Amino acid sequence: MERGCRHLESTHHITNGMKVMLTVLNVVLIASTSLYVLGLLAFFIGLFFPNEKHRERAYRVSVVISVRNEEENIARLLSDLMEQTYPKDKFEVVVVNDQSEDNTVKTVETYAQKASNIRLINITRTKEGLTSKKNAMHQGIENSRGEIILTTDGDCRVLPTWIETMVSYFEADVGMVVGFSQLGQPKERQNLFERLQAVDFLSLMSAAQGALNIHWPLAASGQNLAYRREAFDEVGGFFRIGHRVSGDDVLLLQLIHRMTDWEIRFAPSMSCFNTSGPEPTVSDFLNQRKRWASNGAYQFILNRVFFLYVVITFLVNLSILIALPMSAFSSVSMVYPLVCLCAKCVVEGLIFVKGCQAYRRFDLTRVFPLWFILQIPYVVFVGILGTLGGFTWKKRTHTMGGGKG
After folding, report:
1. Which of the 8 DSSP states describes residue 332?
2. CATH no. for residue 275?
3. Cβ-contact 257, 224 below 8 angstroms
């Protein structure tokens, strides 16, 4: 009987301990969810702000593309660029070969023979202080002549009106224009994994647009990005962020926002949508997202408000991931975790639906519920590994510190 009493007492202490833990966890969950919801609501409101085009002149444009092992894709992109509506004498295409091990160079050379405004640069040296893609992009920009630098990736497809439309957003005070990019087309056949990626990227780009419209730059993609050479030079190019493996887009965005007076705008016009393919495997997808997440901690230096929001996003997902199962296996009510989960679903759903409406991607709506469930553990997993672990990119392994392993 004495043993039974000790057992009941021990169980009582465990239960009380769990209740205390859940109480603290619920406080964190409610606080972080409230801030997270307020932020997304602000982004949602921002999606209704106009982004008008005010073309004043035909700038000289340099399309700079860093490529590594893109023989299967680069021909399609160069064909797209040869069909641009922008005056041929006003733009050049600078393809920077970052030590490709396939037939990328041969393909680019073939197109350079057809079009005088296509040039190839082969990377033979690494500029001190710059890693991988930033080194390639730096040398491409250094050897280009345009007033406007326009970037995309070797595996992207661009519309004939891409250059013309992106340039039209450069008013006199605009230093950077963020363009929309999507994974696949509405009528394109995609498997479930590819569609989940498309939902994830559409949600990210929609939130980025809303945040930028309220003058709180959140994210950008090098798949569709333009900036003045003057703004690029004003922040010292990539050298302040050169030690980071990625971030030639989002970190440059933060530098221009923080260090200059240039305006940054979003280009939502359907005339400048770019398209890229989803990652083929789960491993490739996780490596891509870990690479993106690896810059999260560095935002503490560039934009502490944004860094705080990144931490809040992580805490919301982590708290839900822990609180729901703990509540289910204890006598503590599940009301708080479920309410927070529903609030999160509503605001993320608003962003997603508005994005579907703006970018004609209602084909993805059926996948949203599954994405919403899966992205909770995925955000936690990628957030931890992206900060503490390494990743592989373009057959190069990179360690936690951002260097090449």
Report:
1. S
2. 3.90.550.10
3. no
